[in-house]
Specification:
By secondary structure, the chain is an all-alpha fold. It has a domain at 12-52. The protein is built from three helices and no strands.
Length: 84
């Protein structure tokens, strides 16, 4: 099973977006992860049921030989290209 991800567009004030991007960089994470984390915290705070990611593990033998020992960033770039 593959987890679905919806795409949406939201308007965020430029100053807030700049600050969020800076925080994400400092934490070594992505803006998407920062926004998702904030949404989860708000849902918990307001008493909404927490979202649980479905188990999407797959069978396999790990990385293909050309990626063994390579930095994770290279694996991401090869997987997602310019969509990062």
């Amino acid at each position: 099973m593959v987890a679905r991800m919806a795409k949406t567009t939201i308007d965020i004030a430029d100053a807030l977006l700049d600050e969020a991007k800076q925080v994400a960089r400092e934490r070594g994470t992505t803006l998407r992860e920062l926004v998702e984390g904030g949404l989860r915290l708000e849902l918990v705070r307001t008493g909404a049921e927490p979202y649980e990611l479905p188990d999407t593990t797959v069978d396999g033998n790990g990385l293909t030989p050309e990626f063994v020992g390579r930095p994770f960033r290279e694996v991401l770039e090869a997987s997602y290209g310019d969509r990062l």
